[in-house]
Amino acid sequence: MELKQLFVTALIPVLKVLSITALGSYLALDRVNILGEVTRKNLNTVVFYVFGPALVSSNVAQTITYQSMVKMWFMPVNILITFIIGSILGCLLIQLTRPPAHLRGLVLGCCAAGNLGMMLLIIVPAVCKEKGSPFGAPDVCHMYAMGYASLSMAVGDFYLWSYVYNIVRISSRRGNEDYNQSAERSSTSDQATTSGKLEQRIVMVFQKMNLKSIFAPSTIGALIGFAIGVIPQIRKLLLGDGAPLRVIQDTANLLGDGAIPSLILIIGGNLLKGLRGSGIQKSLVVGIIVVRYVALPLIGVLVVKGALKFGLVHSDPLYLFVLLLQFSLPPAMNIGTLALLLFSNRKCNQKLLARSFS
What we know:
InterPro entries: Mem_transp_PIN-like (IPR004776), PILS1/3/4/5/7 (IPR045033). Involved in cellular auxin homeostasis by regulating auxin metabolism. Regulates intracellular auxin accumulation at the endoplasmic reticulum and thus auxin availability for nuclear auxin signaling. This protein is an all-alpha fold. It has one domain: Na+/H+ antiporter like fold (Up-down Bundle), CATH 1.20.1530. It has helices spanning 3-27, 37-63, 66-71, 74-97, 101-112, 118-129, 138-179, 183-195, 198-207, 217-230, 232-238, 246-256, 259-276, 282-309, 317-325, 334-342, 346-357. The longest helix is centred in the middle third of the chain and has 42 residues, at 138-179. The chain is globular, with a radius of gyration of 21 Å.
């Protein structure tokens, strides 16, 4: 495959995302004011409670079976490795840049959580459809791509809402308390936090963890999708042209189709406000970019190559491509969802996402 053709094949899906992002930024302009802050928050809530769970459940149900789960067992482990290594690198970044206390959880979340849902669902199937794709027949490639992307999205959502959500929530609460205190007391608290040990912070996270967040709507949607896909009796009722309850799956597909464009429009509006914002250390932004786009991809190559060498994964080029891609994604767009739902650090979050996506 020629280099030019390969470049075009990889570029088209990215251009699709950038086009919708630009539209979201335009709609968020003050003179247009269609996608203002209140509108974005309301649309974000609809995505969180309706579109997102429908997208996860419908894709997982259609593409995940017991046989495919056995074949793809290493993918959840690979995603967990990305979160663990990202968290470690995030802790090192915090120690080097010394950000304010109310931003530390957000920085850790941006380093740990990659965009395992939307980006994979857009990029991987789109690459399969492009002429000259290196992954074989387009139809077969697209079927497997949806399965890989769906499992990645489901597992990523579970890790995001069980781990990253609690990190950001605890940090936001502590940050708001610090802002309500005097400057002198805030400085003292910041110094005390800086001198604390990493083990103490981890213990604090587990003590204050909100277990309800593990069962976020997207996680529930993933569990429903797994049940439909794995249990043959339920699968026959809901999936297929002759299924008696196929209208339920069709409805979920229609709702899920709105999740991806809505999320991209929201992030486009957030990026516009974030690029206009201020107050974020340049070293902090550069550090997140280095973690997500340099350090993690290099480590990912070693992890995937090692797994292939020891026979932990099969040598399917598309499967290996997805595993490598999981180490090379920008921060999860649901980090923006977290900030909006927690209603704190919105400007800081928009700034971090804007710089790391641009």
